[in-house]
Amino acid sequence: MVIKILGAGCSKCKVLEAHVRELVSKHNIAATVEKVTEIRDIMKYGILSTPGLVINEKVKSSGNVPKDEQILNWINEA
């Protein structure tokens, strides 16, 4: 599983990245967490605001930091 955090470095991007990394570690999830910071790469996902959360190349959220429970649900669905 590949989880991507889309964002150039705003505070919400950093919070989302920290939450995802913590959840993956805490729940022993076999996933690679990547940070995508290049605007051209972010634009490929069609989001209009950051942070974006992409799980296995599917955009799950953009523009906000989802609750941990929602992130876990998306991970379990993937």
Which secondary structure elements does this structure contain, and how are they paired or packed?
Elements: E1 2-6, H1 11-26, E2 32-36, H2 39-43, E3 52-55, E4 58-62, H3 68-77
Parallel strand pairs: 1-2
Antiparallel strand pairs: 1-3, 3-4
Gyration radius (Cα, Å) is 11 Å
- SS-based structural class? alpha+beta
Rounded average pLDDT: 96
Helix fraction by DSSP (H/I, runs of at least 4): 25-40%
Widest β-sheet, arrangement of strands:
2-1-3-4
Q: Please provide the count of β strands.
A: 4
**Distance separating the two termini:** 8 Å
Along the chain, the helix and strand elements come as EHEHEEH
Indicate how many domains the architecture comprises. 1
Q: What is the approximate shape?
A: globular
> What is the CATH topology descriptor?
Glutaredoxin
CATH architect. name? 3-Layer(aba) Sandwich
How would you explain this protein's 3D organization?
The chain has a single domain, classed as Glutaredoxin (3-Layer(aba) Sandwich), CATH 3.40.30. It is 40% helix and 24% strand. The chain is built from three helices and four strands; from the N terminus they run βαβαββα. Strands 2-1-3-4 form a four-stranded mixed sheet. Strand 1, helix 1 and strand 2 form a beta-alpha-beta unit. The model has no long low-confidence stretch (mean pLDDT 96).
